[in-house]
Amino acid sequence: MLNKLVFITLVCFGTTLIWCQPVYSQNNNTIISGKVTAADTKGFLPYVTIILENTSVGTVSSINGDYKIVTTSTSYLITFSFVGYETESRTIFPGKTQIIDMELHPTSIEIGEVQIKPEKRSYRNKDNPAVELIAKVIDNKDLNNIDEQKFYRSEKYEKIVFSLSNLPEGFKKSRLPDSFEILFNNVDSSRADGKKNIPMFIKESQSEVFFRKSPKSKKEIIKAEKNLNFDEYIDNKGLTANIKYLYQDINIYDNDVFFLSNKFLSPVAFTAPIFYKYFIVDTSMVDDEKCIQLFFEPRNKADFLFHGFLFITDDSLYAIKKVDMSFNKGINIDWVKDVRIIQDFKKVNGRVWALSHDDVSVDFGIAKNMVGFYGQRELDYSNYSVNDPMSDTLFDGRLTATKVVENTQLSEYWDSARISPLTKAQSDLYGIVDSMKESAGFKRRMNIIMLVTTDFLNLGKFEIGPVGSFYSFNEIEGSRFKFGGRTTEVLSKRLYADSYIAYGFKDQQLKYNLGLTYSLNGKSIYKFPVKSVRVSYMYDTETPGQLLQYSTKDNLFLSFRRGVDDKMFYNRSLKVEYLNEFENHFSYAIGYNLTEQAPGGNMTFGNDENLPLPNTIPYINISEVFLKLRYAPKEEFYQGKLYRSPITSKYPTILFQSILGSENLQNDYDYQKFRLGISKRFYFSILGYTDVAAEAGKIFGSVPFPLLFIPNANQTYSYQKSSYNMMNFLEFASDHYASLNIDHSFNGFFFNKIPLIKKLKLREVATYKMLYGGISSKNDPSLNPSLFRFPTDKLGSVTTFSLDEKPYIEASVGVSNLFKIFRIDLIKRFTYLNNPNVSSLGVRVQFRLDI
Q1: How far apart are CA 768 and CA 70, in angstroms?
Q2: 506 neighbors 476 (Cβ within 8 angstroms)
């Protein structure tokens, strides 16, 4: 899923384009483009080497035979060469834009009157020297993969740069805001393909990396960091986490390579020869090492596979000396126009091959010829030591730690730390941004951007929002107007306040909330890890069975609902909570909740046998002590202004909750509640990924229906991943339950093989949701007359049921990535179809940005 970082980035760059025009002219550039085809087959030729004579400028043709060169170098001849075909050259004109389509002819050997041409035959693995070579690489993976060593350490330098890219020709300075002029004149021309960028964000770090094979663990101790400071607008820590999620460390020897939130099958995986084609191209010298150059490409161009070159040592080790690869632009990944991954390896300790340089660049954008973002992450590793034993205590605690080093912000420190120097534009960016941030125009425009992307208006010491919740409506409150805000760390880094007031014009009641949170570790309560105490007092409505993730109930789009929605709780609550998050991503919260809960709409609290007319009571007292435990190993997330959104990974998340309600606490009932939930994403390489969530709960004690487990239902037309989308609010209640939620994305595995549909880059999704539970006799109002009767409709028919007979089941098939921003699901409900106001089929839509 496209995370908050990319969404903010796209909005920012789109907003900037409205304000700004590009800043450079290409009048002196030589621009050459065209297609390379084969004369014998008339098909496109990929990876043809294209060089401008007497220069170091060149490129290779794409998988579709396309190429483009943009350069200021002077040359009068362009040369095309490819194994098995004659080398061809053409005259070019410096400083001009020109199209040169090239048709290459197969190599032929002439002996007298006999002409021998290469035989055309289908590719096969049997008796193929290229496949035999890759088999030897695979057989030697454990010998050449440094992660198979017992221990190693190294120094690491990392540089991450994001830039505006693909800027069109021409520039009108009169259209450029004064606060942005200095930034948009800082053009970087260092890209190998000749394209120019404008750097917008840069981050550098210097660290030590420690690795242990058994038990496997990798720890990084950061010694120094330097980056642009946008803390007023964007959480830099969260921004970095998102970037590292997209640009995860790549080990070519792994069977699966996690990249851009997807899993790609490595060209040296054990099963790789089933999915890849291999061709020996040539032998070449790479850093004084004789290597065999091997080209690889997918058998099916639509699968999540790479194509490119491996440079394999020409000796008995068959180690990988260099990798230069990308993936087919036609695969089902949005917002990505181009990718290049280059890795260099060096021999350490005279035997072990280790990664020395890693350069991953991605050209992000909506369409090929539109302005986008160019993101590049470079890693340099040096000073390796291998198999020197390390203490187990080194790997205790958080996997990333920080060690304070003096003078790390001085330019002299970074000049010596960098192995790959900054370009002039990158170096100048630090000073440019510091200057821009003092501009009133810059602050004003950034506040507008943050309002759009975070739903809060930043006023310095205070923030107003969330703006999207200022108006909503429902059956009971009618039109609901709400206004609120919160203080920021500018006012105080210890004490934070948040508050809102709301008014429903139909029920004519004023709702409100006031919360105070005190940070115990002196850090912002919106940045991990949090250690805080919070006290809040609230009077507001609650829809039974509506539990939203990363959203607020006061959302205009969630106000449009299907079926009958005429029941609510009115809660008057005092809550005290102590939260402690640890660096290893274990956390616990312990607290106390005192709530006066009253029925609203077409709902009453009462029974026919123990109460006089009108057989109802105005409210119940809920007094509870609770404990919440959460463990999410290696979790990363983006910290927004309203919520913290976890970045889904292959690691599980475990949740446990215990609630004690006791008459000794002035509670109306005695009970204990327990809930346990586990969620995890499973990756299946080219077949996509599956999100699985399992949960179970149990209540000990006798309680009325408001205190039973009420499933998370959905009566809106928006698809909600964690809800039962065909279930009505308060349709079921249980004192014990177990649930299973499976959501699989095929990443276009089937659609990509259908010629007309694959161009749309649609993706197939399928879900299965099951809920099994029941109500024991002591909590069943039909068997225990002291309990409140279940809610009914206006005609007196019961609308809340038990799950004793059979499980609730719904499933869906859908299409995501529609117009790149929507997911549509056709959902079928299989059980309890005779319940009132239900239907067996429904369509739900979700706004969703994917990569």
Answers
A1: 51
A2: yes
pLDDT tens digits, 347-382:
998 788 999 999 998 888 766 666 778 888 999 999
Distance from C-alpha of 324 to C-alpha of 358, rounded to nearest angstrom:
10
C-alpha separations of 733 from 432, 544, 724 in Å: 60, 10, 14
d(CA 642, CA 565): 27
Among residues of the chain, what percentage have pLDDT more than 70?
A: 83
pLDDT tens for residues 505-549? 999 999 999 999 999 998 888 888 899 999 999 999 999 988 766
The larger pLDDT score, comparing residue 260 to residue 803, is at 803
For the stretch 808-837, what's the b/e string if a residue is b when 16 or more beta carbons lie within 10 angstroms of its beta carbon? bbbbbebbbbbeeeebebebebebbeebee
**Partner residues linked to 816 by β-bridges:** 763, 823
pTM: 0.74
Residues in the chain: 851
704 vs 668: CA distance, rounded Å: 10
Q: What does the block give as tokens for 718? A: 């928006």
Q: What's the pLDDT tens digit per position in 238-247?
A: 566 666 666 7
Burial 504-519 (b: 16+ CB within 10 A, else e): beebebebebebebeb
Q: Do residues 344 and 351 lie in contact, with contact meaning Cβ atoms separated by under 8 Å?
A: no
Detail the DSSP E strand segments found in 75-134: 77-82, 85-91, 97-99, 102-104, 109-111, 114-116
Domains parsed from the chain with CATH numbers: 4-109 (2.60.40.1120), 455-847 (2.40.160.50)
Using only the alpha carbons of the chain, give its radius of gyration.
31
The rounded Cα 643 to chain-centroid distance in angstroms is 15
